[in-house]
Design a protein that fits this description.
The protein is of the alpha/beta class. The chain has a single domain, classed as 3-Layer(aba) Sandwich (Rossmann fold). 38% of the residues lie in helices and 17% in strands. The protein has eight helices and seven strands; from the N terminus they run αααβαβααββαβαββ. Strands 3-2-1-4-5-7-6 form a seven-stranded mixed sheet. Helix 4 packs across helix 6 and helix 5 packs antiparallel against helix 6.
Length: 238
Amino acid sequence: MSRVEQSIKLDLERIVFIGRTFEEYLDMFALSDEELQGKKILDCPAGACSFTAIGNKLGLDVTACDIAYYHSGEDLKNKGLQDIEHAMEHMQKAQNNYKWDYFNDIQDLRKHRLSALHDCANDMRESNERYIPATLPSLPFKSAEFDILLSAHFLFMYADRLNYQFHIETLKELLRVTKEEVRIFPLVDLEGKRYEHLDNLISYLADTGCTVQEVKVPYEFQTNANSMLKIKKGSKKG
């Protein structure tokens, strides 16, 4: 698909450009900075997260990819500022769907979201080559190009609009570009219910030779969103 076709397909208004901080990523994926040293990491889809920006400043090797990156960094920053305000307005009405121990209150949440957006936007301006436009379920990377792939707040969350086949095709592609392991967070949909096809998907992955674990993590903001899927490649038993 050409860039022009892609931009026609991607109306900026349809993209929500909100991200999480580097520290949130470590908690969501139960990772430490030390574990990631020396690894080639892909954040997919990365949105407005600051994991790539801060990670590289700390000496990590992180690449971000997202459908949003077909748009200019300046447009995305402006969109992100609008999206954060809309999200905070929604949050006022839906506070009971969230646990308020990771963040003190809505103001604290806004501060974290703005911090992630500013770090991401600044890094996009300074190191644009790290931010690769991509449209799942297809990625523009070589097979086994990355050691670890982290995927947050996309698969499973949008089960109402992404069908099971899309999840399978996307997982196959995430695994194709990854050498060691893929981690996906969270395992619930937007209503906080466990993804209904998760057991089938885990069976499918096991049949392809992966070792799959559901792992509780030290992060829960959306109620019940406190587990990730850890998929290790090439450990078929028997």
